[in-house]
Specification:
Layout: H1 10-13, H2 17-29, H3 41-44, H4 56-74, H5 88-102
Length: 111
């Protein structure tokens, strides 16, 4: 895995999140940028019929996602393979700690 130690330029700071994801996938996985279709959240989570009010389906989806995340973090056995290995919450904590150690003092973008 490559690491980059340079500070972003003004031009790099202007790239949208979708553009950064496209660039990372192109660089690290080798996909052609033209083969990657990324919808911005404001498009995915927009109710064109009534843009000023939440879409009930989206509210339900976010509620389900929140509930799943809360359950996963609270259950010390979820995702363990027959009692061996890490639970979801342990794996997430270990990953976050590893990222904090690796990128200490540098800006990162979480997607």
């Amino acid at each position: 895995m490559q690491t980059h130690s340079h500070s972003p330029t003004a031009a790099e700071e202007q790239i949208s999140l979708g553009g950064r994801i496209r660039r990372a996938l192109t660089h690290h996985i080798g996909f052609a940028g033209s083969d990657i279709d990324i919808q911005e959240n404001k498009v995915k989570y927009f109710n064109p019929a009534n843009p000023l009010s939440p879409d009930s389906n989206l509210v339900e989806v976010f509620g389900l996602m929140r509930g799943l995340n809360q359950a996963a973090l609270a259950d010390p056995y979820l995702c363990r393979n027959g009692g061996a290995g890490h639970s979801f919450s342990e794996a997430l904590s270990d990953s976050a700690n590893a990222a904090a150690r690796r990128f200490a003092g540098r800006e990162i973008h979480y997607v």
